[in-house]
Specification:
CATH class of the largest domain: Alpha Beta
CATH architecture of the largest domain: 3-Layer(aba) Sandwich
Structural class: alpha/beta
Largest sheet: 4 strands, parallel
CATH topology of the largest domain: Rossmann fold
Helix content: 40-55%
Strand content: 5-15%
Strand order of the largest sheet: 4-3-5-6
Radius of gyration: 21 Å
Number of domains: 2
Order of helices and strands: EEHHEHEHEHEHHHHEHEHHEHEH
Mean pLDDT: 85
Distance between the termini: 30 Å
Length: 329
Amino acid sequence: MRIGQYDPARGLILPQRLPHGRSAAEVRGVRGRRGLLGCVVGLVLLAVGLVGCGRTGHDARGGRVEVVAAENFYGDLAADVGGERTAVTSIVSSPDADPHLFEPGGRSGLSVATARVVIRNGVGYDDWMTRLLAAAPAPDRQLVTVAAVLHVRGADPNPHLWYDVPALPGVVAAIGAALAAADPAHRGDYRAGVTRTIAGLRPLANAVNQLKAQHSGAPVAYTERVPGLLLAAAGLRVRTPPSFARAVEDGTDPTPADVTTMTRLLTEHQVKVLLYNEQATSPLTARLQQIANDAHVPVVPVTETVPAGQSFLGWQLRQVGALTAALDR
C-alpha cells in the first residue's frame, strides 16, 4: 500500500487512503495537517542553504556517514552494512503509526537535506520522499531506490519489496555500493559489511526454503498484499481475489461478490491460513478475522514496519515462524 502520494497540481502530499472506520474528525485532522508541508519544505530549503556548501560526506557525530531510510526495514539493513561508520535515521519507524496516513514533518525534511545516502522503496510506496529530495538537491548524494535495484515494473506491482526474501542480497549489495560511493576511503569496510549482512540473512532464507519444502502449494488468503512476495517465495497459493486485496489497499469497498468469495474461503475451509495487516485494520478485515476464528482457520498478523525493539531479521523470522506453525496445525 502506498504511504503517501504527491499531487503536483495542488502542491500537497496526500494520504493515499483513509482506512475504513475513520471518523469525520480524523479525516478533517488529516486535511488540516496538509498545510504543514509548505513549512517542511521551507525548513528543508533553509537546511540546504546552511549545509550545502560544507558537505564532507560525514556528519558531526564522530565522522559517520549520514544515512536516511524512508522506512525502518531498510534502515536496519543499512545499519548492519555500515556498522559504526554510519548514522542511520529511519523516517517511518513507529509500529503504532498508520502508514497510509503518513506525512513527513520538518525533522524528516532536515534529515534528508543533510543525508549523504538516502534509501527509499519506490513504486509509489513512499512518493513523499520524492518531494523531500527535490526540496534538498545534492549532486553528490547517493540514492538507493529499491524498486529500481530489483527492476520492478508493471502497472500494479506489489510494492512490499522487503518481503521478497530471495531478493534481499541484491538490496543489501546496493546499499553497500551507495555507502562506498559516499565514503570511498572505507570501501573495504562496506564490502565486508555487505558480506556479513547477507550471511546474517541466511537463517531467514533457510526458514522460507523449509516452509516451501513442507507446505508448497498450500492455499492461503490475505486481506491485502503485504506478505505476498514472501508467500510467493514459499510456494504458497494465494486464493484471495486480486480485486479484493486491491480494494482494501486503496481504502475502497470490495465488491459484494469478492466479500462473499473471501467468506466462503474461510467458512468452507478452502484456505489453511488468513494473514492480515495489523497496522491498518478496518471493520471489514476485523469481520474476516472473526469469521476465520469461528471456522477454526488460523489467523496470522503481519506488519509493514519493524516493531519496536526488534531487528529486521528477528521480525521476519518471527512472522515466518508464525506462518509455519499455523500451516502445521
